[in-house]
Amino acid sequence: MDPQSPSPGGAPSSSSPPPSQSQLPDMKSSEQPSSPCSHSARSTSHEHSSSSVLGSDPLQQHSDDLERHPKGKRKRTAAKDKAILDAAYNANAKPDKAARLDIVKRVSLNEKEVQIWFQNRRQNDRRKSRPLSPQEIAALRYGGMQILSSDAMSSYNSSFSSDNGNASPTQSMSQPLSQPLSQPDPTLSSPPRPDHAAVVAAAAVAAAAAAAAAAAASSEEADKIKDTPSQDVHREVRHQDREESRAVQEAVTTVRKEKSSDDPLQYHLSQSFPGSVGYLSNRWNPANSFTMPSTLGRAAGDNSFKLEPFPPSTCSPSTSSRPILPPPSSQASQFRLSLSLEGKAQVVPSISSPPSDTAQAPTLAGTQALGSVRRPSLHRSHSASPSVTLPPISLLTNSLPSLSAGALPPRLTRGRSRDVHAWEFCCDVQNREDALTAQAKHESSGSAIAAISLLRSTSSSGSPLQPSNSAKRNATASKVAPRSGQAKKPKLNKALSSVGRLQTSIGLTNKRSVEKEVAVGSDKVKVSVLLSPSGNESDKENWSPDEEGNPRFTFSQPQSGAGATNRRPLPSGTSRLDKQNPRRTPGRMLQEYRSPAFLLGTRANTAPAHGCNKRGEKRGQSPLEIFEDSENNDAVPAEVELFMRGEVSPSKKRDVDAVAGLLSLSQGNWR
DNA sequence: GTTCTAACCTATTCAGTTC
DNA sequence: GAACTGAATAGGTTAGAAC
């Protein structure tokens, strides 16, 4: 009304016009009936708006058309009008018709515009006031930590969702493997099963017993952190006030800082909180647990990987995290691969170590130097004597070093990073295998085939050679490996990005890409690439490798029967995917399921090639060969290299040993 | 009970403004 | 030019009144 009526130009007129078009329809339905009354009032009070509203339609339309359509410009509410509207809104966010009319009188806007303004205002307030989602909160606060939290979340959730089928299989897989050697290892059980908090809790408890003392300090910190998030959530919920979420968060953060020392009890309370809050708190807790350990004390504690994720919600952060951490580090022995499968295999790990390296690498990758890390990861099998296993790893590392040295260290610290590393390791393994196979081929056949394979491997992308996939893959991989720095880096990048976004749809995209690639070419190279990306998505897959350092298991799983065999790969993959997804939309869930399946399939394609062919050969031989390799490796890394190089069959055997060993262990050996 | 009207909500688009 | 904000629209739902 007031001055703004400046109607002249546009406001008033504009106000009238806009309604004309948009409102015309509305007018038909709603206003016309009421028009009589409103008209009178409006006409009296507001000529501009009333006129437009009332219905001097022709005039209005003309003006509207002229004003709006020409440029389609929109008028912005004048400051005065806005002030009036704000006051009115504060007084009553949902004014009835009478109130609106009253407002219209005081403003240069017509009733419809006022109504829309209130609608938009309410909508805007809702957006601002609605409580932040845990993810949002995490994002705001922790930023980088989000990933971890997300992972934790994903894992945590996935555990719930996937518990059904996957968990058991995973457990069965992991347990048998772990049990013989590492029954005492809470970590082994826990890692494979991010599934339930209960399991995690149990593992955490066991681990806690061992590392209780050390955990105390860190636990306190973790509790503090956890507490803070929960508190924050509560506060935010309380504050649903119109304060902007940011302001609230800031306030919360400040409060946290002040209250850094909260009782662990609060943590529980936070968990107990109903609804979103509790959910948030839970997330926070897990996330914190994850983050805290890594961030707080143990930057170096590679072992934390597995452990951290597991402890998630249920377990007290401190206890969970620490117990977990210690076992992996201490346990990290190379045996793990062979252990479960065959009693001999346990010792064999040295041979298996190469394959296991991949697995190990992921596990340890986060933790420490590549070589050392890998070995420890392999060592998971507590039972396995670390000393013996180490040599094979070194051998493996020899082939790997370039790759491992570069990228691995950085991410090892975090779960995602694990995944990435795991992938890398997987790739490395392939590379290793590739190198081996390539060498073997070159040496043995040395013929055009090897050269061709190499060429194809170099060309990688469309390599048609699937049949000889393992070899070719290896060749490609091997070639890539040296380059691997390059090729792998990109992969890593993908993984990283995906990691960052685990929760987000990105994972889906990655999966899709993977699927497509697989479906199309199923080329070895493509597969490897896919794997790396999947690594992101496939925290699942990564998990399997990471936890047990059994990427191959994952491979085998797809083959063995994505669903049927409850072995890790599927369960872990599905469960995790599911778990992560569960949070997300069901649609994602589905996609993720698919993707996992595809991924599995992809891997299966890759792995199967290795495992299947080789298995058949090796199963009979595997043990013996493995022992030989292991022994040789143990004896002298150089000898191992010699094996790799000189022995064509041995090189193949390696692949077989690694893949087949893992597969056989996971499948045949186990059962 | 059905239909109509008015109001509301959510999601989205698009223009305007700011950096 | 990108990002943000706000105005406007479209589709849908619900409650009340009229038939």
UniProtKB/TrEMBL annotation:
InterPro entries (UniProt xref): HD, Homeobox_CS, Homeobox_domain, Homeodomain-like_sf
Domain named Homeobox: residues: 68-128
Stretches with biased composition (Low complexity): 1-14, 21-43, 154-190, 458-471
Localisation: Nucleus
Chief location of this protein within or outside the cell: nucleus
Pfam entry (one): Homeodomain
DNA-binding segment(s): 70-129
Transmembrane stretches, start-end: none
Keywords: DNA-binding, Homeobox, Nucleus
Region (Disordered): 1-81, 154-196, 218-267, 301-334, 458-501, 530-589, 605-632
Gene Ontology molecular function: any one: transcription cis-regulatory region binding
Protein's name according to its UniProt entry: Homeobox domain-containing protein
